[in-house]
Amino acid sequence: MDARATTESITQLAADALTGTKVVIDATEVHQAGRRRLVRIFLARDVSDLPEDDTTSAVEPLTLDEVAEATRSVSDALDSSDVMGQSPYTLEVSSAGLDRPLTTRDQFRRNVGRLVKITTTAGTTTTDRLTSVETDGEADLLTLAKTPHTPIALTEVATALVQVEFNRRDGKDD
């Protein structure tokens, strides 16, 4: 089985193990590390149950308990399947960190209310608070606090990273 098929198989197996929870697979990476394989699974809060017209509410981050429970479920699923074959592997499960770029609509939606640094495909860079993520029927659009009447199409975003804030203006701690 090639590496891509293994990654896809692991992702599907892990996703199936998390069915019914409020946790989804954000990304899966498989790397060769000597004789072992390193399997990294990044988790995120499931936003599929949010109403379509809710484009602005904050999404709670995963708790340590949710990550721990998801780790047990994914580990049990991998151990009871033959997806890894006879190869030894190390499993790492975590939530996506701040250093992971935002690339999908769901990733942006989970970060409404946070400060993000966005570089567009045109080369402009801005750091601003993400206030909404919506779909106008054709494109996913991001709205920032400083430019509420000029949404950015998700397809125009080259890179986007959540920024660390130690003292939020509204007094909320993340």
UniProtKB/TrEMBL annotation:
The keyword Lyase appears for this protein: no
InterPro entries given in the database record: Ribosome_maturation_RimP (IPR003728), RimP_N (IPR028989), RimP_N_sf (IPR035956)
Q: In which domain of life is the source organism classified?
A: Bacteria
Q: Where in the cell is it found?
A: Cytoplasm
Q: Check the record and name the Pfam families matching this protein.
A: RimP_N
Please give the biological process terms from Gene Ontology that the record holds. ribosomal small subunit assembly; translation
Q: What are the Ribosome maturation factor RimP N-terminal domain coordinates in residue numbering?
A: 27-99
Keyword Cytoplasm applies? yes
Q: Name one GO cellular component term.
A: cytosol
Under the heading Gene3D superfamilies, the entry gives: RimP-like superfamily, N-terminal
- What keywords appear on the UniProt entry? Cytoplasm, Ribosome biogenesis
Q: Return the similarity comment.
A: Belongs to the RimP family.
What role does this protein play? Required for maturation of 30S ribosomal subunits.
Protein name (Swiss-Prot/TrEMBL): Ribosome maturation factor RimP
Q: Which organism is it from?
A: Ornithinimicrobium pratense
